Amino acid sequence: MMIEIDDSPATSPATSPASAALPPQGAEQTGDNPSPLTGAAAVARGVARLFSRHDIMVMPEVCLPNKRRADLMGVDAKGQIIIVEIKVVRGDLLGDGKWIEYLDYCDRFYWALPGGFDHTPLDWPEFMPERTGLILADAYDAEMVRSAATHALAPSRRKTETTRLARRSMQRLSEVNGWIDPVVQDFF
């Protein structure tokens, strides 16, 4: 499934593309949030906003059965599972060999980087550009640079992962609402 970004006012009236100028680092914001999001948190927010407009709901920091942790994991309206790996430091991008282990748990895999980040390494064969997507994001929005190819999970794996993600989401919601005590480790 290819997500096409339409920045026309009819589809995204209150958003700005990731390539738009950000407030200067350290600039104060008005309102309830006195400090701007930076780093991976800013990228995650921008990606979540982009995906939300396309009916893809994501959750941050999801433990996988192989003991890896996906930065963002989500499900689209068709039930496909998406994993997003966020990188904000070049050394982390070039030194990360674990990301390939995420591919067994998603139908589509994306890299998400902050705007202005040199993303040319993601065109190298070891980063599988024919399979992985690329998103540039800031705290306000995101832009799809390259769509991820779909590599369908086996139905049994998709059911297992969807159920696990749903249960983890309910657990987090119950913790936020104070219905249960926060858990020390992930069970799902």
Radius of gyration: 17 Å
Mean pLDDT: 84
Instruction: Please state the structural category.
Output: alpha/beta
Summarize the main sheet: 6 strands, mixed
Strand-residue proportion: 15-25%
Number of helices: 3
How far the N terminus sits from the C terminus, by CA atoms, comes to: 27 Å
Task: Name the strands of the widest sheet in spatial order.
Answer: 1-2-3-4-5-6
Please trace the helix and strand order, writing H or E for each element. HEEEHEEEH
From the spread of the alpha carbons, the general shape counts as globular
Count of DSSP strands: 6
- Low-pLDDT residue spans: 1-30
Task: Tell me roughly what share of residues is in helical segments.
Answer: 10-25%
Keywords summarizing the entry:
single chain, 188 residues, alpha/beta, 6-stranded mixed beta sheet, 3 helices, globular, disordered N terminus
Q: What's the quick description here?
A:
With 188 residues, the protein is an alpha/beta fold. 23% of the residues lie in helices and 20% in strands.
Report on this model:
With 188 residues, this protein is an alpha/beta fold. The protein has a domain at 39-153. The chain contains three helices and six strands, in the order αβββαβββα. It has helices at residues 39-53, 90-95, 155-176, and strands at residues 57-63, 69-75, 81-86, 108-114, 132-137, 142-146. A six-stranded mixed beta sheet has the order 1-2-3-4-5-6, with helices on both faces. It is globular, with a radius of gyration of 17 Å. The model is unreliable at 1-30 (pLDDT under 50).
Sequence-ordered SSE layout with sheet pairings:
Elements: H1 39-53, E1 57-63, E2 69-75, E3 81-86, H2 90-95, E4 108-114, E5 132-137, E6 142-146, H3 155-176
